[in-house]
C-alpha cells in the first residue's frame, strides 16, 4: 500500500467513472484474497465520488456511506485468512479504515467533507431537542407530533439533527449504531477528524455544540423543575435549596472552564439531586393527585437529566476509544428517542401509563372494601348484597315502566340512565353491594398485591388474596340474586293485587324470556359488552377521585365561606370529607347508569341491535316475566334456558370486567407477564389442596373445652 492506484481528487473524476483497470488494481491491493468482492468495488466508487462543494451533495454522500456500511455482505478475511470474524458492519468499517490509511488523496477528500459538514451544520438541536418532548404539555406535544405526521416537514440541511434521521431512517438503526466497534470508529475519526488549515476542526465544532446544548437543557429543566405544581409536591425541599436552581450555575461553570473534570463531577451530583426531587414529586402524586400535563413534565425532566449526564460523560471521557464508546451510546439513544418521539401513540401510552396507575391505585383502595377475610365479613357481604338486590328489583320495575312512555330517544336515555344511576347511588349510600361492581376494583387490588415486594412475597400475597376474592364475589352474587328474585316476584304480585292485571303483558313477558335465551339471542354478546361498561365505569370513578384530589376540592369546600356560614365549620368539613370518600363511587355509579342506558339508544342511532345484559337486572326481568306467565310458563324449556342464560350473563359480566381491569392494572404497574405462569400454577396448587377456601369462609376456630374442675379434697 505505497502509491495509490487512484488519481488525486479532482473535479473531473466526478464526470468520468474509473476504468476497469483502476478498479481491478484497487481490488487486488485491498482484497487480494477476493478481488471481485462487491464491498471493495463499491467503496472505491464511493471514495472517488466525494463531493467537493455544497452541503446537500455532501449529506447525500454521507447517506450513501452509511448505506454501504449497512449492507449485509461481510468484508471479512479479504487480506488475511486468519482474520477473526466480527459483525458485518465492523468488517466493512475495518475495510474503510484500511483504505483511508493507504490512500492519502481519498483520505484528504473525506477529511475535507467531514470538516465542511460539521462547519456547515449545527448540533444544538441534535443534542438539546432531538428525542426530547418539544412542548410544555401533553396536548401541545400531541398536536405537534400529529402535525408533523400529516404535514410535510421543511428540510433543515444546516442542522445535524436532519442528518441523523436522514441516514438512519428506521428505529432498528439505533441498535446497529450501538453495536459498532468504538475502537474502529476512533481510528476512522483519527484519520478524517484533523483537517489541515484553513479547514476547521470537526471535534471543536461538535464539542461547542454539546456545551451549548448542556446550557440550554439546564435552563429548560430549571424552569420546569420550579413550577408551582412541582414545588407543591416536593414540600421537603425549600425553593432556595432546590437543585434545579443550582443546575444553571453548575452548567455556567462547566462552560466557563471548558468541561473541567471537577465541574463535570459537580454537574453529576446536581443531576442526582434533581432526580431525587423528581422521585419525591412522583411519590406525592398519590396524595396530591396527578394530571396528564404533570406526568408529561416529569417525563421531560427525567429525560433531560439523562441527556445532560450522557453529554457530560462524552465531554469527560479521554480522547480515542473511551470517548467514542460514550459518543456511540449517546447517538444510539438520540436515534431511538427521535423515532419514539415521532409517534403520537407512544406519547399517549407513556403518559397514560402513570396516569392509569394512579387511577387504578385509587380503584384498588376501593377494592379492598369488597374483599372479605373472616367468616363474619363473608356473612356481612351476603347481607349487604341482599340489600343491593332489593334496590335492583325496584330499578328493574322502574325500567319497564319507563319503557311504556312515549319519549324521544334522548329523553328515554336520560330517564333510564337516571333510573340506573339513582339505584346505584342508593345502593352506595345505604352501604349495600352490587356484585358486578366488584371485579374491576378487586382486580386493581390484586395487581397491587402482585406488584409489591419481592417475588416470593408477591406469590404468597397472591395465594392468599385469590381465594378471598372468589368467595367474596360468590357471596355478593348470592346476596344479589338471592334477593332480587323474591323481591321482583313480590313487586309483581303487589302490582297485580293493586291494579288487577299482571305487571307485564303475556307478549312482553315472552319477549323478555326470549331476549335472555343464551343461543337464540345476542344475550351473551351483550353480557360481554356490559362487562366492558362495568370496567369503564370503574376507570371513570378512579378518574373522578383523582380529579377531586388534584383540584383539592375537599379543602376548597371545607374553607368555603358560604358553606361555613350555612353548615358551620364542622358541617363544611364533613361535606368535604364525604366528597372525598364518595367521589370514586359517585363517578362509577353515575357513569355506569348512563352507559347502560346509552347502548340501546346508540344502537338505534347507528342501526345495530345493541343492548346490555346485567346479571342482577336480567334475573329481576326474568322474575317479573315469570310472574306474568304463571307456574306453567316458568316450567317451559325456553324459560329454563333463559335461566341458564342468566348464569352465563353473570359469568361473562365478571370475566370481562375482571380481565380488563387486571390487564390494565398489570400494565400500569409494569408487572412482567412472564410471572403469570408461576402465579397460576401456585393458585392451582392452592385450589387442589384447599378448594373449600375458594367458595366458603374459613371455619370458626374450634373451641377448646374448659377443663373440668377436679375435687382434690381428702
Automatic annotation (TrEMBL):
Pfam families: SpecificRecomb (PF10136). The keyword Transmembrane helix applies. Keywords: Membrane, Transmembrane, Transmembrane helix. InterPro entries: Site-sp_rcmbase. The chain crosses the membrane at residues 410-430, 474-495, 524-544, 579-602, 639-666. This is Adventurous gliding motility protein AgmG. It comes from Myxococcus stipitatus (strain DSM 14675 / JCM 12634 / Mx s8).
